[in-house]
Amino acid sequence: MNTQQLFPQRDLVRFAAQALAARGVPREDADLTARSLVQADQRGIYSHGLLRLPLYCEALRLGGINPAPKLKFSKDQGSVAVLDADAALGQVAMQAAVDRVIRVGREQGIAAVAVHNSSHYGAGAFWSDQLAEAGFLSFITSSTGPVVAPHGGTSKVLGTNPLTLGVPSASGWPLTADLATSNGAYGKVIAAKNEGTQLPEGWAVDADGNPTTDPVEAEKGSMIPFGGHKGSAVAVLLEAFAASLTDATFAFETVDIWSNPASRMNNGHLVIGLDTAAFAGSEKTASRVAALQDRVRSSGPGGQPVDAPGDPERRRQEEAAQAVPLPPSTVSQLAALAEELSLSPLETHSAP
């Protein structure tokens, strides 16, 4: 996107936190959520970045998201817990879940938290990175709103059901896979609609089941699972992992806040962490993972470099450490939000 504008990273975090605080979110929770969104934009994952801030603010205003929830661990049995998030911002619920997984996992070697009554938690790598930093191998997934038709179907039964896997590495970057089980994240459909661009072929079908690259028609129709019947099977199983352990709703039972910001989505999340220190040892695991990353990176023809999972996003984050590029439609939405909430407008980055 050559027309992107650059903004200071700290200004974006401050603006997002102020916007959330204006909707009643406590400062610490607002800052956490702001950092999650801005980091996604730094990594080029615009579908999970500040594009979502106006939606969060509207859902907070209308009651779809509870700004000051009372989180409660309704079950807490050894290495396993269930968290009732009280319609919290997903980031707030996930931070509580990740903190418990790290604390209990260090005692037990493994810990899992199933969350219900939550909302969108942003990019999954924001959470797997924390677990990797603590020496944990992680598995994270979530239910979402209904946007995906199973392989062979035409109705919206599934969510984009993200899957995030992370392992610590001595290379400095964890080995990370963070992906939707649809061919593209639903936020990318919204971004394409906002930008007036088309979707890649093979991402969606219209309401009649015909392939489409029009994001407006894709909204009316359905997203397609990645990998044909195999990807569809993974998506269905992740739906079960994310929602069947608690009272969370399946996607086909959910009204997405994209459709109605007053909807309490009751998303389910599942976080599982294995403390690598309890197995081969944290240093040995990190060293072996680094060797695997290096082998992948050197596997190109004629010694040409190849990206290991997570490498492109990390590079983009390093490049955007100070100045973060944003798509024009997101810039316009943030300007409108600033006016609505009487916040100081963002100023573009000025090189030193």
UniProtKB/TrEMBL annotation:
The keyword Metal-binding does not apply. It comes from the Bacteria. GO terms for molecular function: oxidoreductase activity. Residues 296-329 are annotated as: Disordered. Keywords: Oxidoreductase. Belongs to the LDH2/MDH2 oxidoreductase family. This is Ldh family oxidoreductase. It comes from Arthrobacter cheniae.
